[in-house]
Structure prediction request, 328 residues.
Amino acid sequence: MSAKTQHNNILLAILGFVTVILLVAIIGYFTLDRTEETIQGEVEVSEYRVACKLPSRVVELRVKEGDFVHKGDTLVILEMPEVSAQQQASEATVGVVDAMSDLIDAGARKETIESAYQLYQQAQTAKELAKKTYDRLQRLYDEGVSTAQKRDEAQAAYKATEAQVQVAKAQWELAKSGAREQERRAAQKQVQAARGAVNVVKSVLRETVQVATADGEVSAIYPKVGELVGMGSPIMSISMTNDMWGTFNVREDQLKGMKVGDTFKAYIPAFDKEIGLKVYSMKDEGTYATWKATKTTGQYDLKTFEVKARPTETFEGLRPGMSLIIKE
Prediction:
């Protein structure tokens, strides 16, 4: 074999090797570098929890998981014996203070007023008798018939009857006028306080009947009938199925200019259909969220954003937790 032939063979081998490398590079470019990136999210729903303000016992569950309830529907009946007893005591207290207030407003009875008047008249009579006795002894003393001691004793008795008249008159006037204004106001305040206590107890007892505050589906019931529930402990959760949205964790290099108000399509594997969504919220998930480090290539770190979007049309059968797929 000549040297020229060997040289040509070497060139052909090199050319073939370069061709293979180029073909591999081209195939890799159009396959590996062009694979679709998938963004996966899921359907979420607003939810509220039903709870009681005070410890109580579950007497009856009016609904079960999966039931759809309307605003105002009764969900659960609770029992609070201690509060019921307190209501009875509060109502009894109201009765007592009402009676006392009526008694003060009515004033003294006629019999009491008449009795005070009679005592006043008796005191007046005693005073007149003492006055006559004193005057007679004074004349006898002036004539030298009676001693000064007897005259002084009669004078003291007369002064005492005068004081008794003043006391009896004051008692009679008090019985006629009745209670003072301050006493009436105090009685009224006691009545208001007692009725306020009853209203508080009634307000608490209303908590024994828990009703739905909005339409929704019963997603979870925690206690069983007969169990005790603590203060503020959740009894059940209600999913507000008319308020659903999709949540996506999107790396910032995948946002591609997405902003609040934009619309896009997402694939629902559960129905093998697409749904239209409109972005209403975007926020940085912070350093704790999933991120991609690119600093080793001399570039930057890519953060993740939480994107929330609501359906643009009604989609029957959409459930919380279903997957939503965005393909780029």
